[in-house]
Every structure is written in structure tokens, then in C-alpha cells.
Design a protein that fits this description.
mainly alpha
Length: 180
């Protein structure tokens, strides 16, 4: 065994506990952020569902997204489909929350003239939240957590001024403020 091989094995032995601790901390933190994001969507969709200044189609889509959030996502959690298997099931057209959010997307496109601008924006952030939720609970969670943390740190710098990902930055700031 060469010196380089010994160094590589030593680095691996040292990095595994560090990754384990990081994974436990980051997963707990991101679950808090994603749960806060789900609450954010639940509140906004409830308000939109009752807002009579919106078109009937906008209220119907808000009601559908709220149902997906409250019922289907919870069914996915109970059935153990919140992981890569759930993403695969949604791609195959099985009734997961991700697949149903895709159906809402097609309804928005079909009735785009009758849909309020807030509905597609909420759909984008809700879909992103669901994908992140599925990835955090998957076998690729370490890679997903590293990516999401890196993305959040870049967003904290203020380089990116708009987009649906800013919701996670704001929720992370709120979490940090509550912690202090």
C-alpha cells in the first residue's frame, strides 16, 4: 500500500463521521424549512380559495392544490412514497402528489386566460417544495442537502433577486432569527 492510498483511506475514514453529522443536522434543518414552506402554501391557498375576486377556475385550482397538499402528500408520507420511488411513481403516471401537481400545471396552461397570476407562482414553489421533500427523504439525501445548502448560501448573498427559490432563503433567515 502506498502513502497516497493510506492518505485516501484516512481521508475517507475522517470524512464519513463528518458527513453523518452534517446529514443529521442539515436534514433536520431542511425538514423545518420545507414544513414552513408547506404551511406558507396552505395559508395562501386557503385565502385564495375563499377570495371571490378571483375567477372560479383560479379558486378551483387553489382548492385542488390545497387538497394535494393536505391529502395526497400525507397519503404519500404514510405509504412511504416520499423518496426516489415516489418521484419514479410520478413519472410513471401513478397518483402521487408530484403527478397531481403536474396535472394542475396542465390545467393552468389550458385555462391560462382565466387563472390569476398567483396560482402558477404558488404551483412552482409548491412543486419545488415537494421535490425537495422527496429528495431529502431519499437515498440521495446527502447530495441533495449539499446542493440545497449551497444554493441557499448563494441566494443569501443577494446575487439572485427574484424566483421561487427565494422562499427557501427567506424561511432560512426566519429560522436563523428564531434560533438567536
Amino acid at each position: 500500500m502506498t502513502i497516497i492510498g493510506i492518505i485516501q483511506i484516512s481521508a475517507l475514514i475522517i470524512s464519513l463521521p463528518v458527513l453523518y453529522v452534517y446529514h443529521r443536522y442539515a436534514k433536520r434543518r431542511w425538514i423545518w424549512i420545507l414544513d414552513a414552506s408547506l404551511d406558507y402554501h396552505r395559508n395562501h391557498l386557503s385565502v385564495m380559495q375563499k377570495d371571490h375576486s378571483l375567477s372560479d377556475k383560479s379558486r378551483e385550482l387553489a382548492r385542488g392544490m390545497l387538497w394535494i397538499l393536505d391529502k395526497q402528500l400525507m397519503n404519500d408520507l404514510r405509504a412511504g412514497h416520499v423518496n426516489l420511488r415516489g418521484v419514479l411513481r410520478s413519472i410513471l403516471g401513478m397518483g402521487t402528489s408530484l403527478h397531481l401537481l403536474g396535472e394542475v400545471y396542465y390545467q393552468i396552461i389550458r385555462y391560462r386566460w382565466h387563472v390569476d397570476d398567483r396560482v402558477p407562482r404558488l404551483l412552482n414553489t409548491l412543486t419545488g417544495t415537494c421535490y425537495r421533500y422527496f429528495l431529502v427523504h431519499s437515498s440521495l439525501s446527502v447530495v441533495a442537502l449539499l446542493y440545497m445548502d449551497l444554493e441557499c448560501r448563494i441566494l443569501m448573498t443577494g446575487v439572485i433577486k427574484k424566483g421561487s427559490r427565494l422562499l427557501y432563503r427567506d424561511l432560512e433567515r426566519e429560522r436563523m432569527a428564531l434560533k438567536n
